[in-house]
């Protein structure tokens, strides 16, 4: 996976959408200088969670952010089993992203259940007084 390409793609998408580096940094809960370092390549690596957040803030899917082509043929090729490292890396990142989304949804569901249980316990305690 070419990190330089990804940085350029992020920069291009951000500019295309009319978002400043300051706005993007704010959306990612970081200051403008920290975000600018990502685009300039001063931050040597970008973890999957940050890439996922960037894609989300730019309203694109992770594959669009990481893929080198946006043609229908490229999409079809990405969906077929390939042996190239680039596509394998992209598929791995997409799968990791989906797994994280599922885990987050499970946590949200568990939190809702806990809140409901606590609310019910409080209701019972209030009525028992």
From TrEMBL:
Residues forming coiled coils: 90-117
Domain HTH cro/C1-type: 10-65
InterPro entries: Cro/C1-type_HTH, Lambda_DNA-bd_dom_sf
PROSITE patterns in alphabetical order: HTH_CROC1 (PS50943)
The keyword Membrane belongs to this UniProt entry's keyword annotation: no
Key words, A-Z: Coiled coil, DNA-binding
Gene Ontology molecular function: DNA binding
SUPFAM superfamilies from the UniProt entry: lambda repressor-like DNA-binding domains
SMART domains per record: HTH_XRE
Protein name, as recorded: Helix-turn-helix protein
Source organism (scientific name): Taibaiella chishuiensis
């Amino acid at each position: 996976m070419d990190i330089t390409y990804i940085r350029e793609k992020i920069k291009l998408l951000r500019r295309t959408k009319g978002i400043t580096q300051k706005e993007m940094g704010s959306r990612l809960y970081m200051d403008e200088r920290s975000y600018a370092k990502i685009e300039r390549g001063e931050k040597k690596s970008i973890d999957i969670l940050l890439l996922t957040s960037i894609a989300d803030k730019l309203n694109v899917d992770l594959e669009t952010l990481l893929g080198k082509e946006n043609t229908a043929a490229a999409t079809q090729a990405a969906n077929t089993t390939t042996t190239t490292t680039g596509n394998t890396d992209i598929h791995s990142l997409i799968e990791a992203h989906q797994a994280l989304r599922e885990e987050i949804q499970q946590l949200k569901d568990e939190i809702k259940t806990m809140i409901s249980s606590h609310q019910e316990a409080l209701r019972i305690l209030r009525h028992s007084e």
